[in-house]
Amino acid sequence: MRRIKPLDPLVAQRIAAGEVIERPASVVRELLDNSIDAGALSITVQVIEGGLERITVIDDGEGIASEELPLCCHSHTTSKVASLDDLYNLSSLGFRGEALYSIAASAKVTIASSHPSSTPATLIVDNGIDGEILPVGPAKGTRVDVEHLFATLPARRLFMKRPSSEAMMCRRTLIEKARAYPEIAFRFYEGEELKIDLPVTNHRQRVLDTLQNDKRVVPGETIEMGDKGGNFSLYAVASNGAYWRSDRSHIGVYINNRPIDEYALVQAVSYGYGERLPGGAFPYFYLFVTVTPELVDFNVHPAKREAKLRNMAEIHQQVVAMIRSQLTTKELPKVEVRHQGELYKGYSPPSSYSPPPKGVGEIPRERDWFDRAKEIFLEQKGPSFRYLGQIFSLFLIVEKGTSLYLIDQHAAHERLLYDQVRQDGGVQNLMLPLLFEVERSVDTFIEENFELYREWGLTLQRKDDLLWELTTIPASWKSIEGVIVDFLSSQTTGDRSELEKRLYATVACKAAVKDGDTISREAAEALIEQVLQLENPVCPHGRIFVVEITKESLWSAVGRT
């Protein structure tokens, strides 16, 4: 039987490091926190081979005094917390005293720093083993180099993704952090290539700058919101309902400038928008909550992605109320839109647009589907049914022969559009191609089905690793480019038949009239006319959308014979 004994200090250090440092992006997160806490006004990050070979963070902050430098890579050493009271009144991002200790346990770390009260100095720690301190360093601020991350932990390296994917996660970490600090300039390099350049600006513009790679964002339709509670204040930069996504990936929550995974507040945002967005649609919404420090506890998880709020219910209610009261269409100040090439230095849109040859990519000059259906309807002597009206803003009531029919307007319209889009031909070139990033599994799936998508009118071009550009869509698919990008960004499995059905069903579902929409009598009758000609009234998702109630069943229900 093995005896209980203390762990070897180096083993204990490696175990503790695994909780804080999961991958290169974790290193970037912790070093950015340190730079921000040091009062930096300019921060530059560089990653080599996705950060596995080297991560460099340079700032112009206060720096570290030379006599304190030997302590900074030891366990539980920090300048941010001195007592238990400090732990419950945090104003800094870092507080555990574990970040540099954990990083130094997993890599070779070189810290060169200069503090106004002392001479510059450089510390080298190699995988938990302290090295020498050199009397050299920068004129101002701090530079941290993290080299050969996890080189002595081969099992951890096996779980790393490709360098390009790790670099993307590092980039996202910087962008997420930068949204909360518009007063700080951020730069991000992959190798020698400048990928992101975020100058000092105002809060709204900073959020927009971090979204410049998303062509669905409409700066002129982006608004600011603000409100106050007893011990907190709210600020948000959000879409006003003119554009949205089919997922919650762009609902971000920050508490005291920390990005937090807090579903309750994400839910509050959805409640606030309510019926202003179609079903299954979610806004772009970045919420910044500033709360009295003693009411929030960040000491929940080493990754600092969680927090406990004592007044969560109050904040939740205030967020919902703020959105509902302030989500109105109003004249917005003009926002400077920086050219995509200035922010994402590696990606350049076409310098000019050349129209396609005549007849290629033209949108057919035909009337709307409802107009065509109406024309057919009016050419007949009269309808074979009687439209009685709409109930619950969803069901159309129809009398035909000796039966009463209830028709689900959304599912019915979805089915008709589904049949239509499957028959349409021709493509249209997008005036502004859409750039979008994808996960690795999606990237692989697009590669495998590249020609299939092209066959369906969706032309894609690879712009970088995990970055694609959509340049054409079918001619009759109008104003749903964002829906198509969302679809392309979510597909990882399926054969030709299954994928085709999902695509057309998605397009039809988004374009169809919605539950809650009030439609005119003419539109309703045109819809009914087409529905009653269907042999199998089932929507693309497999649901029946016509319910028949016979005269006999009604007579029987009230006791008539």
In words, what does this structure look like?
The chain is an alpha+beta fold. The chain has three domains: 9-198, Histidine kinase-like ATPase, C-terminal domain (Heat Shock Protein 90); 203-327, Ribosomal Protein S5, domain 2; 369-548, 2-Layer Sandwich (formyl-coa transferase, domain 3). Helices cover 32% and strands 24% of the residues. It has helices spanning 9-20, 24-37, 84-87, 99-104, 154-157, 163-178, 203-210, 263-273, 312-326, 340-343, 369-379, 409-423, 440-448, 450-455, 481-488, 496-511, 521-531, 551-557; strands at 42-48, 54-59, 108-114, 121-126, 129-134, 141-147, 185-190, 193-198, 222-228, 232-239, 251-255, 258-259, 285-291, 296-297, 308-309, 386-391, 395-400, 403-408, 427-437, 459-464, 467-474, 546-550. An eight-stranded mixed beta sheet has the order 5-4-3-6-2-1-7-8, with helices on one face. The chain has a five-stranded mixed beta sheet with strand order 9-10-13-11-12, with helices on both faces. The longest helix is centred in the first third of the chain and has 16 residues, at 163-178. It is elongated, with a radius of gyration of 29 Å. The model is unreliable at 329-367 and 376-382 (pLDDT under 50).
